[in-house]
Design goal:
about 190 residues, alpha/beta, five-stranded parallel beta sheet, about 25% strand, two-stranded parallel ribbon, 6 helices
Amino acid sequence: MKKQNVELLNTGNMIKYALMDYVPQKYLRKAKFETLMDDSFIWNFKDGKAWAVKKAAKMVAEALSTYNMENVVFMCVPAACQRTYVRRCQKFSEIVCERTGATDGFPFINVIGRRAKLHNSRQHVVAEEIEQVYIDENAVKGKVIILFDDVITTGKTCDTFKERLESLGATVKLAVFLGKTKNYRKRFLS
């Protein structure tokens, strides 16, 4: 497959791409077997299980394989604390960058303290106190960034991080997610 230039992604807005569906726990009893397997995989990735981190890295690298990544910084959206961020993203980001040729942005981020995980409640409320995330400004200024996060529900977490990076002079082109939360609410309310 021919590699595309990342500049083709310049639409003015960030493109968001999810590799699979993610079903909230309250709807899992209605889910198909494949959906249960996808959710289990995502939970194992979130837990930092080595097999899931490697599988996720392979999937993301394959999704990015058609793009020329040599002048791109690949960054994971920070987790609630540094320990979780390291467990989930350090090896993952390293593998993705080895496979794609992107610059590993993992070392450019440091989560200071601990943020509340309010997005685990019934309503998705972003608890991103962005000041608690240190980003190496010199490493991102003038760079093209591709972001990764495990699950997208509303997109607010990723959008907030994108705005922070762009305020430091970076250009964020694309965000890749393992899963996109399926909304069954409308279907079950009628």
